[in-house]
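Q: I'm writing up a methods section and want to include an example of the input and output format. Could you take the sequence below and give the corresponding predicted structure tokens, formatted cleanly so I can copy it straight into the document?
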Amino acid sequence: MIKLSEISTRPPSDVDEKKLKKLTDDYEERIGKLNEILRAAQKHSLLVILQGMDGSGKDGAVKNVFKDCTPFNLSVYAFKKPTEIEFAHDFLWRVHQQVPAKGDIKIFNRSHYEDILIQRVHKWIDEERVAKRMAAINAFEELITFDNNTTILKFYLHISYDQQEKELKERIDEPDKHWKHNDGDWKERESWDEYMRCYEYAINESKIPWTVVPVDERWYRDYIISKKVCEALEAMNLEYPK
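A: Here is the clean output for your methods example:
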């Protein structure tokens, strides 16, 4: 049972930062090469799910880890408030349309888990619906894994309460980050403890495991994610078509 309060948001004290940064560069370069073979082979796909509180570095992770990938088969989708049409369907209707085709890497910057996170925190859905949605999520992920050869990697970007404050303040103080500022992020911060409870539920009830990534130091975030992505692509035993 994962308890987020018991997991550090910082790298282990005994790691060699310089060495891990070099490994990260190697992983990112290898990801770029494997992605090219993934595209050519058209037999597998990869779905990368990034979840975390505001300021946890989801955008930065995408920018850094996948920088060596060709854009032809790599795309990012950010799930926002559902439209009226999306609200008129089941909560996974809009998600299924975004899953990767064979040969593609798709990154969800926030995901279908928002439907048991923010909606649960604000009591927009009751606990019975939360449980049914969690079961539907597990079934959905099992379906695309089995039926479309999709490997799913799920990362919870684990940021500390104090570090989040620093990140949100930077969006106010630094001109090149003003565009990221949203008053609503500060409002959501007031529900920090409830968000942690809901994240723990989502992580612990998932059939496909999550990786909890310490992100107070961004270089360590990139190392963990790039390593996991590279290992997942390697495990596909990708080959160019004959």
